[in-house]
Write a structure and sequence with these properties.
Layout (H helix, E strand, L loop, with lengths): L1 H39 L1 H8 L5 H23 L4 H21 L7 H30 L8 E8 L3 H9 L11 E8 L2 E8 L3 E13 L3 E6 L6 E10 L6 E10 L3 H10 L4 H18 L22
Antiparallel strand pairs: 1-7, 2-3, 3-4, 4-5, 5-6, 6-7
Helix pairs in contact: 1-2, 1-3, 1-5, 2-3, 3-4, 4-5
Length: about 300
């Protein structure tokens, strides 16, 4: 019972971390989009928010746009972006002050300025909430995105079946889209080949360091590998006989160090995102026998959105 409560608490904290990380990423992309508009279309932005379109306001908007772009890139490139989200809060305060100052001029459209101010206040509230939560998790050591990834999913299969499927590493490429192949070499060792950002390929050798049937598989890469990592996948019966809770924890050091992590996160290939996608695909494979994609999927070729009717 105590173990279930503890695991439930871990899962809840992990879910909260994922939620606020996704919110931070959304705010980061919003910053970049807004910044690009302010830099390249300051006249259109002036009209939208109700300020006079003149050289002074255009120059000011371009400065604000560069600030937004810097904040967005900072949020997306950092594993713990609390500081950059707080920078957005400071920018929001500056924006609100500028809008309130502009509202005192008869040359500006006060109705549009009022709408723009209300929108900025709403975004500011999101920024403050996200910054507070990220700061709290960072200070409590609840996440170390630079070094560790932890994800959990529940699948409607028994621990024995899930463990057996996962333990055959040659099954992993069926749901890990970045993984090309896994070759078993005996004595608990295997050779892995995977796709990396920029169209590169990385390879490494790994060994199983702990194997508890139907409960746990732990591994680590061997010296000299392109990718240095270690981790484990744990299988636990879900409450109420609802299948199996699959929990993945992984220490990960991608090729390219900090630069590699930044590029990967900006282009949607950050390890946490990969594992999220892979676990969802694993759930589909283990429950239905295939990964189901819609015709609008980014994957090449046509895929059925649902199994064909019998």
């Amino acid at each position: 019972m105590q173990s279930d409560v503890l695991n439930g608490g871990i899962m809840q904290r992990s879910s909260q971390a994922d939620t606020y990380e996704r919110l931070a990423n959304g705010l980061g992309w919003f910053s970049i989009g807004l910044g690009l508009a302010e830099v390249f279309r300051p006249g259109a932005v002036s009209h939208l928010i109700g300020v006079d379109d003149n050289d002074r306001n255009r120059a000011l908007l371009r400065c604000y746009g560069l600030r937004e772009i810097a904040a967005g890139v900072g949020i997306l490139s950092q594993p713990q972006p609390a500081g950059w989200v707080w920078a957005r809060v400071a920018g929001d305060v500056l924006d609100i002050g500028s809008l309130l100052s502009a509202a005192r001029s008869e040359h500006n459209d006060r109705a549009r300025l009022g709408t723009a101010t209300a929108a900025v206040l709403g975004v500011t509230a999101l920024d403050v909430i996200c910054a507070q939560q990220l700061s709290s998790m960072q200070s409590n050591g609840a996440q170390d995105r630079d070094a560790r990834v932890e994800k959990t999913i529940t699948v409607n299969r028994s621990p024995e079946e899930v463990y057996g499927f996962w333990h055959d590493f040659q099954n992993l490429p069926t749901f890990m889209k970045h993984l090309d192949s896994v070759e078993l070499s005996g004595d608990g060792r295997s050779h892995w080949r995977a796709k990396a950002p920029g169209g590169r390929t990385v390879e490494w050798d790994a060994e199983i360091v702990d194997d508890q049937p139907n409960r746990l598989i732990a591994w680590r890469s061997l010296d000299g590998s392109d990718v240095s990592h270690e981790g484990h996948v744990r299988f636990r019966p879900a409450t109420g006989g609802r299948g199996t809770v699959v929990q993945v924890r992984m220490q990960y050091d991608p090729p390219g160090g900090v630069v590699g992590k930044t590029v990967a996160k900006l282009f949607g290939e950050e390890p946490g995102q990969q594992i999220d996608d892979d676990l969802r695909a694993f759930k589909q494979v283990i429950e239905t026998g295939e990964v189901v994609n819609s015709d609008a999927s980014i994957h090449p070729g046509m895929h059925a959105a649902q199994p064909p009717a019998v």
